[in-house]
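#onboarding

Welcome to the new folks! Below is a worked example of what a typical request in this channel looks like: someone posts a single protein sequence, and someone else replies with the predicted structure as tokens. Don't worry about understanding the tokens yet, we'll cover that in week two.

Example request:
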Amino acid sequence: MADSLKVACLLDEDFEDSEFRKPYDALRSAGYVVNIIGKEPGKELKGKSGRETANTELSIADVKPEDYAMLFIPGGHSPDRLRADKRFIQFVKSFDALHRPIAAVCHGPQLLMAAGLVGRGRTLTAWSTVQEDLKYTGATVKDEPLVRDANWITSRKPEDLDVFTSAMLEALKYAGSEMGVMRGAGEGVQPSVKRPS
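Example response:
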């Protein structure tokens, strides 16, 4: 069933290299399809440390939240860039309304804030400076490697990636059993992620 479930990865320039790469590789190795979704298809994106390069496969204009079992938001400067585009904010809102897993690490919760989803009654974590922003929304913020709250999975930084990635894989197992086999947009799209030479 894993190879029929798809993960939407929202990505833009200056993403945190390891926060994209480690979960991406783990998800692919487990048989999940990971679509890299950006502002336009076929655009080369570079990580902020210059260690990773990824090409967007699909445009945010061409995808539907209901086609995905999980939403994955890597950190770095990427979430800040994406939240300036209302299409990404609407995608995040619509995805959260499906009550399917959202995994956000480091600065990733900035997109959740921009979508108006963070507030009183929600518990999460993020990069240390983002934690302060989250507190202003009324959310409960924990400075811990992994925080789960309903359909949200959040972590703080690259050092938390082992537990973050494990939690993503666990959540997808449950999502798969609840949703059954999913087929939809982006099927058959080949991954286009490379390391710079």
